[in-house]
Write a structure and sequence with these properties.
- The chain is of the alpha/beta class.
- It contains four helices and five strands; from the N terminus they run αββαβαβαβ.
- Helices cover 28% and strands 17% of the residues.
- A five-stranded mixed β-sheet has the order 2-1-3-4-5.
- Strand 3, helix 3 and strand 4 form a beta-alpha-beta unit.
- The longest helix has 13 residues.
Amino acid sequence: MKRADYLNWDEYFMGIAMLSGGRSKDPNTGVGACIVDRDNRILSLGYNGMPFGCSDDEYPWAREGKPLDTKYLYVCHAELNAILNYNGGSLRGARVYVTLFPCNECTKAIIQKGISEIIYLSDKYADTDSTVASKRMLTSAGIKYRKYEPSGKRIELDL
């Protein structure tokens, strides 16, 4: 008889997105993303961080201050990293699991690549212009988005 308490697909892929977010050096918001195809195969992963060649020890992680002294002009978001990290063919019809609802810039990339669904953990910036614009574009483009509903399962890893 098979195990009954195995992870369902949403739990599995959101768990991987959460684990990917653990790679982020951002002291405030570690975001992870996991892109999967229609057959539930992982295509790519990403987390928010500095672009290749830009040392995360030299660039700022601050949230406030002059724009050039904050992280916002430099950090590559998890969703965009996952899209850019993918070296396969098309992402058309894929799903992206992400720990934070995508900003308007990542949403544009998601739409352009043909990703058909976003499953997100947090929407803590729902009232910002960026998120409102994201949802407006997603609705226009016919891309589904839904909040991940935690099951309450716990996974413990000894690393």
